[in-house]
Amino acid sequence: MKSEDIQIRDPFVLPIPEEGKYYLFGSTDRNIWGPGTGFDAYVSADLAEWAGPFPVFRPPADFFADTNFWAPEVYARGGRYYMFATFRRKDNDLLGTAVLAADQPLGPFLPHSGGPVTPESWSSLDGSLFEDEAGEPWMAFCHEWQQIGDGEVCAVRLGADLREATGEPVTLFRASEAPWATPYVSPRYPDTANYVTDGPYLFRGDSGALYMLWASFIDNTYALGVARSASGGIAGPWHHQPEALYRNDGGHGMVFRAFDGRLLLTIHAPNRTPDERPLFLEIEERDGRIALAGRTSE
User: Fold this and answer.
1) How far apart are CA 285 and CA 209, in angstroms?
2) pLDDT, position 189
3) 6: helix, coil or strand?
4) pTM of the model
5) Domain of 251?
6) What is the pLDDT of residues 194-244, one digit of tens each?
7) Three-state SS for 33?
8) Whole-number mean pLDDT of the chain?
9) Are 183 and 175 in contact (CB under 8 A)?
10) What keywords would UniProt list here (predicted)?
11) Among 55, 181, 255, 294, which is disulfide-ready with 203 (CB 3.0 to 4.6 Å)?
12) Quick one: DSSP state of residue 150?
């Protein structure tokens, strides 16, 4: 398959250098707004031609969710592979991020945490693993705008085994704090001013500075922005780049290093089902900011 043949949202790439292969994960149900069937993955040597789909997760009969299987992110850690993914809980109909684990990058992934590691009473999504300079694991995630109006990006410490949160979540910023984000006019909430947070992902630039990608909307068009931690740590404070990095109806991105050394961003675009496709864009760190290579924004 070619990249333009793959319907996927929330793409996440795990490079495995010793294999010379890239593993592509994401929200792969044809209708991701309905019942969840699981997650598939694709494998490539060049980010253009892909083998797959390979089924990497199918829920067991006693799984805590059966709807909205979203945004799997897969990390190699301690000889195993850990998947952070969002699901809608059966018990309270709220979204939460849980951790799955496998011995191989193509799974099969099985439940690792005892349900979501996000707060039970919160509608939370898009959990993303981050290890601080001491090697301690954290999870960045979104407290959903549909529950609180002004969506938040939060962080919580995790235990060393990634099975549960070990502290209370802290709010890193609210969507309305970014100068580029505008209120989202939702058909479900037409009379309220809502600000969306989606898909936080933390990474370090070549300078060592800590950046965060996250998605929201500009005039009801999906867009991707960047924030930088003034302290160099996950607690921030976080300063937003004034303009969106990508504003052409694409977002929910992550960053990885290609085998040729380039720093690549992957996003899905456009932001409508069933037309979502993975895009791969080269980025660079420039004067304390992240930009598309050769450009300032799109």
Assistant:
1) 9
2) 80
3) coil
4) 0.97
5) 3-292
6) 999 999 999 999 999 999 999 999 999 999 999 999 999 999 999 999 999
7) coil
8) 96
9) no
10) Carbohydrate metabolism, Glycosidase, Hydrolase, Polysaccharide degradation, Xylan degradation
11) 255
12) B
